[in-house]
Design brief:
Elements lengths: L3 E2 L2 E2 L8 H14 L6 H25 L6
Antiparallel strand pairs: 1-2
Helix pairs in contact: 1-2
Length: about 70
């Protein structure tokens, strides 16, 4: 629910990166009722590593001015 502040409405946006979403998927898999295969977890870890490497590469290309 948005708060009214003198006629203007404030909204908050949340952005989740790919790595965060993969981490959430890992946590959900670990605590779900189905049996989690170690192979699935290893594959997700590998994907997370590749995503992090890609993000590091893109950040390096953008330069220091792009980092907050």
């Amino acid at each position: 629910m948005a708060e009214s502040n003198g006629g203007s409405t404030q909204t908050t946006r949340v952005q989740l990166g790919c790595g965060t979403l993969i981490l959430i998927a890992l946590i959900v898999m670990m605590f779900s009722d189905r049996d989690v295969d170690q192979k699935d977890i290893d594959e997700l870890r590998d994907q997370l590593t590749r995503v992090e490497a890609k993000l590091d590469s893109l950040n390096a290309r953008l330069g220091p001015s792009a980092t907050p």
